[in-house]
Design brief:
CATH superfamily of the largest domain: Metalloenzyme, LuxS/M16 peptidase-like
Low-confidence stretches: 1-23
Number of domains: 4
Helix content: 40-55%
Number of strands: 26
CATH class of the largest domain: Alpha Beta
């Protein structure tokens, strides 16, 4: 569960002031299957909008492409409706909705309930007490009674039920005005899903509260370590001091320390009512059947008035508001402008304005700041909410550049926007790209459901969403210029993220918690009832690489293709067996190509041309594979391919662009040393390979500085002299496409041999080792690592089943023990990792992110699991059912078929591994898992890779686990 708002999914521009909605898109009322619903004419998603008698909104968008369904249960309630004296409540209520009811999650409700009632009273007593000694004693009582109550609790029974029916992505998220519960389940499990959800929301029980609240503490501490979160919270606190900025989604430390179960229950009863909720489903189902089932399951919910959200109107910002936050991450600046809420016409123009500034190719920020390398990175994006919206500008400086410089450069682009200093053709490009984006979004059942859910929680009229492509073309340049001048003045908030010590850093202190029972073998009668419910049988569909992939010769190489029968999108790739292991310069050349042009076209001209075609290109170089990728609308296939061919064959060296790239690369390399995730990745690579490893297989500072533009150009052009694997997915047949490629892509008569590959040999751990890197933070990041045996395809079934049982999500042994029972971490996992090619070795990875003062407990907890596999036949059967149902309902489609074939080929196999796993997993039992664990995990030496603060983690503690080696950043990063 997580606090989540995806900025990139900010709602599309729907219509503009004065233009209205294109008349062909209208709401109409229809009836089918005994139910009345509304639809929008010409809606490609065919979404149906129902309202049950109790006010519950049901949105159904059927699409049969895969036998799965994306499900959201959305509540129009979030942090903005938290009580002022209980901030963070909506978020930790979200966590508690996974704990069950009086029918599931309990061994004996009659014995559990009195203890839970006593815990309620103890928390109220705790909250009203200020004396520290008394509070400590009361908390000891809470811990004691909670331990007794836990004896009657079945931890993670909800997760087990969902895993048992083959659900994936079991989670939830809370934001300012939404709390959303999400599942991706097989279409065979609709009846089970609805039965579980109806019971879940009937009368939730907030059991195992104090251990779950500790997980929220951990989440809060992770946020305190996150410079990006600090920046974002400072922005909203100053941009919306009377509304969204009054309180954060995760809440204050003081309120987290003083929770009230009574207040949580009151909040639930107030906002979790049918007229404030929606069930959104998209996937493979019959809507006439599903609506009856939803009504039958959720008709019990009672309509109840929801108190309106009130706030004082935000005062106008007349002069820039400037704030600072500090932390160890690289410097950056965020600028925000305030706009009206989502349902207003002015707010709906915001999305288009964001695209004019940033669209990835031809926006003002893209061309003038990124393409010209004036900044390390820069972007503008809208963040649209119900009451207010904002345009966020974000920039990162290059070396020796001040944050004031970054601000001035971004504001200069805003001035260009206000003056209309952008071409009319940019609007045409936006229209073309919107067309492509709509096609791509509608082909995915996950995207459909997400868009419908976001529209519901923000009060967006779906009709305006459907009309987007049509109405977009009506917007003029004058409309945009007038709109920009109306809102973009000296009325912004700027948050400077400085690099350095945060002297105001706080942390949620660790309470004393006794590990509780999880009763992992227990099953409630309700779970048994759910498991016994009938499911529609679905036959698995395995790939046949010989039949599912078309093979066509293009001169001396092969074209692999799959026909797109759904829409007009194409994807083309040239894949070369060469990467940074062959040539360290390749990743830099892959970046350089976006900054160069030809004799006739500048880099900016090329970006604009691709954007006008609604096409894109990229060159990516991994360790062993380099891929040139092109995508767009099939109608523009020839022009797209020709445009790229002209670029790569006639590219000219640009020393100024290279100088800019070197400056940006130097800054990016410096920034990586300030990133705790990058540091941990370096530790893992060191543990895996030793001092010389893939992570630090990079150019030295001197080698980077010595690069010439001509050698990068030569490297790019020479790439075409190696034999590629050509991959096509699109509306044309492979034969037809081969003819076009043959005419547009000049393939040499003979190919060069690939250069020698540098081999990195994985090392054997002979004894326990500790690799430590200092980082100024509240938490400690701990990874366990060990290299294992060489790849064997015959182990795939046991590995996948073991991972499901041991470390696979919230129903796995690791999560249940480390988080649910011992409250030692917010995030934890462990798995046996498979390599990408034959003759390579497996590896074991385990992870705990915890408070520094819990490090020893967390390590002890994980070590116990690594060395002693807990046995639970019930969890094993759940994991097995989950794996089998996921395999049966998984569908590899589109160009994923080709990439699956190429991945299998690298592993030395020529068949769909899923079929083998499905067949063999059915025969496996717990004894097989135990033998695998004993052979691969138990009593083995491990490398402990730890990132944390030396001030919070004594060296003596590290020495308990093995020979300690503190690694400096130069050694880790190779520069």
């Amino acid at each position: 569960m997580k606090n989540h708002k995806n900025y990139a999914l900010a709602f599309f521009l729907l219509f503009v002031a004065g233009n209205g909605i294109a008349q062909e898109y209208e709401w109409k009322t229809e009836q089918s299957g005994g139910y009345t619903y509304r639809t929008v004419t010409d809606d490609p998603t065919k979404s149906r909008f129902y309202t049950l008698k109790n006010g519950l909104t049901i949105i159904l968008s059927p699409t049969p492409k895969e036998p799965r369904i994306q499900c959201y249960i959305a509540v129009k309630a979030g942090s903005k409706t938290d009580p002022a004296n209980h901030t963070g409540l909506a978020h930790y209520l979200e966590h508690m909705l996974f704990k069950g009811t009086d029918k599931f999650g309990s061994l004996d409700w009659s014995k559990e309930k009195p203890l839970l009632d006593e815990i309620d009273k103890l928390y109220e007593q705790y909250n009203s007490t200020t004396d520290s000694a008394q509070r400590k004693q009361i908390y000891a009582n809470i811990d004691s009674v909670s331990g007794e109550a836990a004896k009657y609790a079945i931890a993670n029974e909800y997760d087990k039920m969902m895993a048992g029916m083959g659900a994936q992505g079991t989670n939830a998220f809370t934001s300012f005005e939404q709390t959303v519960y999400t599942e991706d389940l097989p279409s065979t499990a609709v009846d089970k899903f609805l039965a579980v959800q109806a019971e879940r929301f009937r009368s939730p029980v907030f059991r195992l509260f104090h251990t779950e609240l500790e997980a929220v503490y951990e989440e809060k501490n992770r946020g305190l370590d996150s410079d990006s979160r600090k920046t974002f919270e400072a922005m909203f606190a100053n941009l919306f001091p009377n509304s969204y900025g009054k309180q954060t989604t995760i809440g204050t430390i003081e309120h987290l320390k003083n929770p009230s179960l009574i207040a949580i229950r009151e909040y639930y009863n107030t906002y979790y009512v049918p007229n404030n909720m929606a069930i959104i489903l998209s996937g493979d189902f019959n809507p006439n059947e599903v609506i009856k089932k939803i009504d039958a399951n959720f008709g019990f919910m009672q309509n109840k008035p929801v108190p309106p959200y009130t706030y004082d109107e935000e005062k106008s910002i007349t002069t820039p508001v400037v704030k600072e936050v500090w932390g160890p991450n690289p410097e950056s600046i965020m600028i925000g402008y305030r706009f009206p809420g989502a349902s207003t016409k002015d707010a709906q123009l915001l999305e288009l304005m964001g695209s004019i500034l940033t669209n990835g190719k031809a926006g003002l920020f893209d061309l003038n700041l990124v393409k010209q390398q004036k900044l390390l990175s820069a972007a503008a994006f809208p963040y649209v909410l119900k009451d207010y919206s904002t345009l966020i500008l974000q920039g990162n400086p290059i070396k020796d550049q001040s944050l004031d410089d970054v601000r001035n450069l971004m504001l200069a682009e805003i001035d260009k926007l206000k003056k209309g200093d952008f071409p009319e053709s940019l609007l045409t490009g936006i229209v073309n790209n919107a067309k492509k984006a709509t096609i791509q979004s509608n082909e995915s059942y996950e995207s459909r459901a997400s868009n419908l859910m976001d529209a519901f929680t923000s009060g967006i009229d779906w009709k305006t969403r459907v009309a987007y492509d049509k109405t977009l073309a009506e917007i003029t340049k004058d409309d945009i210029v007038a709109f920009a001048n109306k809102y973009l003045k000296n009325n912004y908030v700027a948050v400077y993220k400085r690099q350095g010590e945060d002297k105001n850093m706080l942390k949620v202190e660790k309470p004393s918690i006794t590990p509780v029972e999880v009763n992992r073998d227990a099953q409630s009668p309700f779970l048994q009832h759910i498991d016994a419910m009938a499911e529609t049988k679905i036959e698995p569909k395995w790939l046949d690489f010989n039949k599912d992939i078309n093979r066509t010769k293009v001169k001396g190489t092969e074209l692999l293709s799959v026909e797109n029968k759904d829409n007009a999108i194409f994807r083309l790739a040239y894949r070369f067996d060469i990467g940074s292991y062959n040539e360290k310069l390749l990743p830099i050349a892959a970046q350089y190509i976006q900054f160069i042009g030809t004799k006739d076209k500048t880099a900016e001209d090329i970006s604009k041309a691709f954007y006008q075609l609604a096409s894109s290109f990229s060159v990516s170089a991994s360790t062993e594979i380099t891929t040139i990728s092109l995508s767009g609308l099939q109608e523009n296939f020839d022009e797209t391919v020709s445009l790229f061919e002209d670029l790569i064959r006639h590219a000219e060296p640009n020393e100024q662009a290279l100088t800019g790239l070197k400056v940006r690369l130097q800054k990016a390399r410096e920034n990586a040393k300030l990133n705790k995730s990058a540091i941990l990745q370096g530790l893992l690579s060191y543990a895996q390979y030793g001092e010389k490893n893939p992570f630090n297989n990079v150019l030295s500072d001197a080698e980077l500085e010595a690069i010439t533009a001509q050698e990068l150009i030569d490297l790019l052009k020479d790439l075409l002299n190696y034999k590629p694997q050509i991959i096509y997915y699109g509306p044309k047949s492979g034969t037809d496409v081969a003819v076009v490629i043959d005419s547009l892509h000049a393939i040499p008569d003979s190919f060069k041999d690939y250069p020698t590959l540098v081999e990195f040999k994985k090392r054997d751990q002979q004894a326990n080792e500790v690799y430590f890197a200092h980082y100024d933070m509240v938490q400690a990041e701990i990874d366990w690592f060990r290299n294992a045996e060489v790849y064997d395809p015959n182990k795939t079934a046991i590995i996948q089943l073991f991972n499901n049982y041991f470390g696979g999500g919230m129903s796995g042994i690791v999560f249940q023990t480390i988080r649910e029972s011992k409250a030692l971490a917010y995030s934890t996992y462990a798995y046996y990792s498979s390599p990408a090619k034959k003759d390579d070795r497996y590896s074991i990875v385990a992870y705990v992110g915890t408070q520094a003062d819990k490090m020893n407990e967390a390590i002890a907890g994980m070590n116990d699991l690594i060395n002693n596999l807990p046995e639970s036949e019930k969890v094993f059967q759940t994991g097995k059912e989950s794996l089998l149902k996921s395999l049966v309902t998984s569908r590899i489609t589109e160009d994923g078929i080709i990439y699956s074939y190429l991945s299998a080929k690298r592993l030395g196999i020529d068949y769909d591994m899923r079929q083998k796993v499905y067949s063999e997993a059915q025969k496996l039992n717990f004894a097989n898992l135990k033998a695998f664990h004993d052979s691969e995990f138990k009593n083995k030496p491990y490398a402990y890779c730890i990132v944390g603060s030396k001030e919070r983690i004594p060296t003596a503690d590290l020495e308990k686990y093995g020979t300690v080696k503190e690694l400096d950043l130069s050694t880790l990063f190779g520069y």
